[in-house]
Amino acid sequence: MSHGSHSDGHANGHGVGHIVPVGLQFGILMLLLVLTYVTVAARWIDLGPLNIWIAMLIATVKAAFVVLYFMHLRYDRPFNSIIFIGSLLFVALFVCLALADTVTNKPRMWGGPAPAVAEIQKPAPATP
Amino acid sequence: MTQMADAVHPTSHAAVPHGDAHAHGHHPNLEHHFDSLTQQFDAGKLGMWLFLATEVLLFGGLFCAYAIFRRNHPEVFMYAHQFLDTTWGAINTVVLLVSSFTMAWAVTASQRGQRHLTSILLALTFLGGVGFMVIKAVEYSHKFHDGLMWGVHYDPAKHEHGHGHNGAHGAAATAAHGAADHAAPADHGTAGAAATAAPAASTHPEATTSVHAPETSGQPAATGAEAADLPPERAPLEPSQVALAPAGPAGLHTGGHDLHGPRPDNVHWFFGVYFTMTGLHGLHVLAGMAVIGWLFVRSVRGDFSADYFTPVDLGGLYWHLVDLIWIFLFPLLYLIH
User: Are the Cβ atoms of A87 and B72 closer than 8 angstroms?
Assistant: First the structure.
């Protein structure tokens, strides 16, 4: 994003692309390892339904660091970010719509294990 | 500019020897249809990101399936995830993260023209992939051995019945149930059904162990008759005899986390989801290893320089995406609370 104008004579004089220093990348690795430990340790704290959201939040933070620094997206052309974030938005749309159906239809479904086929096919009680 | 002219008339360029006729020299790695190395680099990155977007959508479908399965059957996930080994899962996460780091470092090294360092780092990244797949293979083989598999192949009894008399009892009950089916028209009481079942069972070739059950005491016979009242798939709601995976990495284990309740129906769904997601991810790891192996060969050959490292960069992007997907798979499959 910092590259408003690309030209052959690059600002840092190293040809094309942005060079991410090894020290910074090592710091990102350490951060990712700490977050991995946190997500495993968070399992032992019972927060009910919040647990999966915390796990997903930590995973998203880890993924953001990988994408921004290991994959250079922070220094890359903004259009690449649009493509990537766009794909994530479409996945979110897909999952949310599918889950919306699953969640809102729940009361109309059988609780617990579905009845056996024979029970379904059994003729209804004789109606007068 | 001559380069612009070349872009419009590529045939005219072909006649000109490389480098000589151009004002600022023609880089040997610059393809003829690009104006500059920067444009070539950006085009390559754009194509790679488009490909990665399709990969995200591919795995998005699987994550969607996971969400629906888990939402509809939380008890299956709560029960079945206990058979996954969190320690191995966490170690594999670390292995992939470290190999992602060595890959990112390899890109930096190749950007700086450090050829030998690039080769070493690519080799280390490849070894990370090997480590990941070896651990995955160990996990898979345990699942296969314990019968913890998808669909109709889910058969934990394969393992359970190998363990002493607990399993034998279950087999006796099942055999008695099968025999009671033959005796059903007689419609006796509980004890009568068992008595009828015993001679019928003796004619059954597989029922040699079950005949002993009614003889020793009346209790097992009653159990068998009760089991006979239930459909066979509902009857054995006993705790599984398959050993659980250890809980958490050493040092994190607080002990006493015995969530190991009775087995719900349809546990095979979890293992179907598990094998599909980790299997497709594993294929991506293998593909990434192939790419990195190819990059290693080219790096040793001296193909890359500070001006031309695009293949390393793009291969690295793919490897990071594989890491990215595992970052989500690990908590979703191994860390269910």
Answer: no
Question: Which residues in chain B touch residue A21, judged by CB atoms under 8 angstroms apart?
Answer: 108
Burial of B323 (0-12, 13-18, 19+ CB in 10 A): buried
- CA-CA distances (angstroms) from residue A76 to A34, B209, B323? 26, 70, 20
Q: Is pTM beyond 0.80 here? A: no
Does pLDDT of B232 surpass 80? no
Whether the predicted pLDDT of B89 surpasses 50: yes
User: For residue range B312-321, what is the model confidence (pLDDT) as tens digits?
Assistant: 999 999 999 9
The verdict on a CB contact (< 8 Å) between B41 and A17 is: yes
Q: Is the separation of the CB atoms in B324 and A66 below 8 Å?
A: yes
pLDDT-based confidence at residue A120 (cuts at 50, 70, 90): low
Q: B255-283, pLDDT tens digit by residue? A: 334 446 677 778 888 999 999 999 999 99
CA-nearest residue to B107 within chain A is: A19
Query: How far is it, in rounded angstroms, from Cα A44 to Cα A51?
Result: 10
Contacts of B64 in chain A (CB under 8 A): 91, 94-95, 98-99
Angle between helices B268-301 and B115-146 (to 10 degrees): 160
Contact B280, A75 (CB under 8 A): no
Q: What residues of A are in contact with residue B331 (Cβ under 8 Å)?
A: 39, 52, 55-56, 58-59
Across the interface, of B46, B64, B265, the residue whose CB is closest to A79 is B46
Nearest CA distance, B127 vs chain A (angstrom): 18
What is the mean pLDDT of the segment spanning B38-58? 95
Domain ranges in chain A are 19-71, 78-105
**Burial (CB count within 10 angstroms: exposed 0-12, middle 13-18, buried 19+), residue B221:** buried
How high is the ipTM of this complex? 0.76
Q: Which residue of B has its CA nearest to A41?
A: B252
